């Protein structure tokens, strides 16, 4: 049997404790091992042992006690997986041959399952990071443009034009004819304005409109606050089948997710494993029970106020569905752990 260890990136400890304690009548928060070392003192040298012990303050059965305390943490994941692996509600996609699979067959397999494990390619979407980048994008873009101008031939030509304009301005200022001086000033002002406009247009290349930056931030703050999506693709020949998970920032093993994106990148070139619970399995042609259907029909006047509010919630469902990204053939999984499995 292959021996592996896990580079654990994410672990929902509280939910794992809750699940494991239901299966194993509670969870041991720590264990202690006690060992004793020592032995009897003998008198093979012809010395009276009792007298010798009295002089040195020792006993005939001296022993040393050692105590070792272990607190389970990441090992809890291994124990939880061992318990669930034997369950009928568990499926390991790594053990399913994907050669003849399609999304509909996979969904049929998953219908009777609650726990899932899958290894595949990952795409990481950190919406707070996206918001931060969007806010600073134009400033960064302008800085890059200015750096490229500073090292380009165009910058040298621009500086020459500016120097020529300054010389022209001195000549105009020395002009004694007031009418000629006024005309020349108007001409030079226009040239300077045109040059500045060309420079501004060059600097604005690649900029995002301000309304779009504000809109991205508003949308994320309203519908996607603190959202980190992990998209798993278990099968290369079936990229339409996707496992979508929302990872909570506080359950990452690294306190700063930037360390993970630096180590592995937002699209890692090494496969990752997810272990968790299936929470959404949308059908291809899905018709769900609609609890609001009856209330939204014409009814008693006494519930008109309640019906109005429920109608508002119904209107918001479209927005929520829009940002949940829950649609066939994608499935949604509440992750208990995300890790890279390493063979020893």
What does this structure look like?
- The protein has 344 residues and is an alpha+beta fold.
- Helices cover 45% and strands 21% of the residues.
- The protein is built from 11 helices and 9 strands.
- The chain has helices spanning 13-23, 49-56, 75-85, 103-110, 127-150, 153-173, 178-203, 210-223, 257-264, 293-296, 304-324; strands at residues 4-11, 31-38, 63-70, 90-92, 115-126, 228-233, 243-246, 272-280, 331-343.
- The strands form 2 sheets. The protein has a 5-stranded mixed barrel with strand order 5-6-7-9-8. It has a two-stranded antiparallel sheet with strand order 2-3.
- α1 crosses α3 (75-85), α5 (127-150) packs antiparallel against α8 (210-223) and α6 runs antiparallel to α7 (178-203).
- Residues 43-47 and 49-57 have low confidence and may be disordered.
């Amino acid at each position: 049997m292959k021996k592996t260890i896990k580079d654990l990136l994410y672990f929902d400890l509280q939910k794992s404790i809750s699940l494991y304690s239901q299966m194993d009548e509670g969870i041991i928060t720590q264990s202690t091992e006690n060992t004793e070392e020592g032995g009897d003192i003998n008198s093979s040298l012809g010395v009276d042992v009792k007298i010798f012990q009295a002089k040195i303050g020792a006993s005939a059965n001296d022993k040393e006690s050692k105590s070792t305390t272990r607190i389970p943490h990441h090992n809890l994941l291994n124990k939880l997986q061992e318990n669930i692996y034997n369950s009928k509600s568990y499926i390991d996609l790594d053990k399913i041959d994907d050669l003849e699979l399609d999304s509909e067959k996979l969904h049929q397999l998953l219908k009777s399952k609650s726990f899932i494990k899958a290894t595949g390619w990952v795409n990481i979407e950190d919406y707070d990071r996206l918001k931060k980048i969007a806010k600073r994008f134009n400033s960064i873009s302008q800085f890059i443009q200015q750096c490229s101008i500073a090292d380009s031939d165009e910058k040298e030509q621009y500086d020459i034009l500016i120097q020529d304009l300054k010389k022209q301005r001195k000549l105009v200022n020395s002009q004694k004819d007031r009418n000629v001086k006024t005309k020349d000033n108007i001409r030079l002002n226009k040239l300077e304005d045109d040059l500045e406009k060309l420079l501004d247009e060059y600097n604005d290349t690649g900029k995002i409109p301000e309304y779009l930056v504000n809109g991205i931030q508003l949308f994320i703050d309203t519908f996607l606050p603190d959202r980190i999506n992990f998209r798993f693709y278990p099968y290369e020949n079936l990229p339409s089948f996707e496992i979508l998970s929302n990872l909570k920032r506080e359950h990452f093993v690294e306190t700063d997710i930037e360390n993970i994106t630096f180590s592995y990148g937002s699209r890692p070139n090494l496969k990752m494993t997810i272990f968790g619970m299936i929470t959404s399995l949308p059908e291809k042609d899905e018709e769900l029970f609609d609890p609001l259907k009856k209330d939204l029909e014409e009814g008693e006047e006494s519930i008109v106020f309640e019906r109005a509010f429920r109608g508002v919630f119904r209107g918001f469902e479209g927005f929520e569905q829009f940002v949940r990204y829950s649609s066939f053939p994608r499935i949604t999984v509440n992750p208990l752990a995300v890790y890279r499995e390493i063979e020893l």
